Amino acid sequence: GDKSEGKLSKNDLNNITQIKKDIQAAQAAGATPILVRTGKGKKMLEKGIPDNVAVYDDLAAVVNALLVPSA
Q1: Helix intervals (H) in 1-71
Q2: 32 CB-contact burial (10 Å; exposed 0-12 / middle 13-18 / buried 19+)
Q3: Distance of alpha carbon 50 from alpha carbon 42, whole angstroms
Q4: Are 13 and 40 in contact (CB under 8 A)?
Q5: Is the pLDDT of residue 70 over 60?
Q6: What's 50's DSSP letter?
Q7: Backbone phi, then psi, for 14, in 5-degree steps?
């Protein structure tokens, strides 16, 4: 197996820090933070996110959710 499996690189940690700042900025602006389960978002989910963050599988799912009003 890969020795680095399960470990985060410095780049991963920087990305997670930036995502946390983006979530805080969205909340401060009164917006709903959105996280996509691809790329950097996937690693962020592994570390845990606040309850009020909307999570989607991909960008198409985000667009669909924004364009189709909830019932």
Answers
A1: 10-28, 40-47, 59-67
A2: exposed
A3: 14
A4: no
A5: yes
A6: -
A7: -65, -40
For residue 67, pLDDT over 50 is answered with: yes
Look over the chain and give the mean of its residue pLDDT values, rounded to a whole number: 81
State the angle between helix axes of 40-47 and 10-28 in degrees (0 to 180), rounded to the nearest 10: 80
Q: What digits encode the pLDDT tens for the residues 15-44?
A: 778 888 888 899 899 998 988 888 777 778
pTM of the model: 0.67
Q: How far apart are CA 17 and CA 60, in angstroms?
A: 25
- What is the greatest pairwise CA distance in the chain? 48
Q: Tokens in use for 34?
A: 């959105």
